[in-house]
Amino acid sequence: MYNQKLALLVAGFWGISMAIPSCKPKNETNVISSGAAEKTYVAPGKYDEFYNFVSGGFNGQVSVYGLPSGRLLKIVPVFSVFPENGYGYSEETKAMLNTSHGFVPWDDQHHLELSQKDGSPDGRWLFANANNTPRVARISLTTFKTEEILELPNSAGNHSSPFCTENTEYIVAGTRFSVPVGDNQDVPINSYKKNFHGTVSFIKVDSVSGRLSLAFQLLLPGVNFDLSHAGKGASRDWFFFSCYNTEQAHTLLEVNASQRDKDFIMAVNWRKAEEYVRDHKGTASKAPYIHNIYNEKTQTAQTTTENQVMVLDPAQLKDFVYFIPCPKSPHGCDVDPSGEYIVGSGKLAALIPVFSFTKIQKAIGDRQFDGEYGGIPVIRYEAALYGEVQKPGLGPLHTEFDGKGNAYTSFFVSSEVVKWNIKDLKVIDRKPTFYSVGHLCIPGGDSKHPYGKYLIAYNKITKDRYLPTGPELAQSAQLYDISGDKMEMILDFPTVGEPHYAQALPADLISKNSVKYYKIEENDNPYSSKGEKQAKVVREGNKVHVYITAIRSHFVPDNIEGVRVGDEVYFHVTNLEQDWDIPHGFAVKGAANAEILIMPGETCTLKWTPTEPGVFPIYCTDFCSALHQEMQGYVRVSKAGSNTPLIFSTNLADSAVVKN
Ligand code: K7E
Ligand code: CUA
Q1: Which single residue of 247, 353, 394, 589 could bond 414 by disulfide (Cβ 3.0 to 4.6 Å)?
Q2: Does residue 632 line the site of ligand 2, with CB under 6 A?
Q3: Of the candidates 597, 583, 582, 456, which has an alpha carbon nearest to the alpha carbon of residue 63?
Q4: pLDDT at 653
Q5: If you measure from the C-alpha of residue 296 to the centroid of ligand 2, how many angstroms do you get, rounded to a whole number?
Q6: Pocket flag, ligand 1, residue 397 (CB < 6 Å)
Q7: Alpha-carbon distance 28 to 459, whole Å?
Q8: Ligand 1, atom 5: nearest CA belongs to which residue?
Q9: What's the mean per-residue pLDDT of the chain?
């Protein structure tokens, strides 16, 4: 979304000329101090201090790093198919990617939020947004699997999401693109002002199971909702959303949505919204949306279609939604650990406004309004403002907090992180990033109790930082030690996909609960084989179900005959291992599919439709023992209509052959 014109616009706005598309900091060789290696060195066999969950942007996935080493530990597939482990390819997981538009195998994943208890990350779940086909996901942090994906109706581009309230009562989702809402959506694009609306959704999170349900939506003027954060402490009942394009442009937004001096931060009293819902003040709106849940017992995802959402109209129901003017197309909307200060970062602004929750409450009480926008009261800027950070840098985007009274803001255009004091709004320190920085992350940095210690900058345009890899270069994360007064850059590591927001927390909040294997006796997958004796091949019309087991280092059965061209073959592979870190893989020659990777105690199903007669190898794809390379077998396929008998075996000479 950033380009040279924006840089020019900002440059023009500042009346200066500048390198395009971003400034390249000088003196970079002096940036790294001599002690950096020691600070990031995690000796072989030792664990990192923090988990760092990083959004994958256009790869639709989430990556998991250790800090301070920057070591990549895992990629968790969420909104995109992942051939590495069969997510979205196996019969069990295909349903996770169902939407009202059908199977959507990709998305653009921007923001992550850890579930919280009393305003601190509790290590239970990680929530993720999808910016393309609007969805939110819940990932289990005991299994590192995506367990649930909920689609959002009346929405397009779920960007200001999935931030959560202090006790994870709700996560939210706001439309990046306003769109026509209601029965007739086939309208001229230039009827934007009349027909287009923005919505923000409040999604209830069950406190025990984590299950998501769309509680209610707010119907709002047609603007672009960008980012959001919940209040904390005294402001815990409120949620704050930034928005741009209050000009309501529908073309050439880079110019047309940059006209007004101020856009808005929207303050929502969600407790009051709850009351309105309880008192039946909402309207039930018909809109289909899809809900996918992965059942850990059956190890299978199921899709249900929902049809209705409760919509509240703040232009009618007063006193729970307010707009606060915020300079120049605000992006980040961040709330300090105390809950008193709300920081808006105008992408084109020359300052950072900090709003006071106390003053906002007083302004609402005293009705210090500057008219309305779309029927919603606009609080006077000065009445809500605590103060402005003057001349902080160029292109402020996002702010995180260290829990010691300091804020850290990223500057995309001037490629730097700036540390400032929340109380006196004075700049304390600034350090370059390489190069154009987007989000920042401090462990617990958007919670009530940040852990401080490190700050990570996620940079967009790395240019010459790494060995060249053709036209596409790795994006980068940079780690700063923030334990002292001055920030110190200590590490630089490439990321996967495009990093946007990230979350980090102390490792033991997660590592102690990590699942090591699934108990085979608790495997309720209807296609499991709980021992080699249960392995079998069953024909049902043109469907052939292969119940196959995997254990070091063979499959049962590993010789199968009687499959015919035109059959649909389902390999239900159960991994019988009951030991940590012994997955088996499974692949078939010529299958128009990925492999599946089966965890100990788990069953996964690979569908194969053979198209020609012959003998087809199957094999284990994951090096599981010294004899992994022997873990293989054959499936004989005969031509359609042939009467080759269906037989299956492993080691025919000394084991019983079961026929059917
Ligand atoms: Cu990357 Cu949060 Cu989509 Cu800013 S957003 S950078
Ligand atoms: Cu099983 Cu390799």
Answers
A1: 394
A2: no
A3: 456
A4: 52
A5: 23
A6: yes
A7: 16
A8: 500
A9: 94
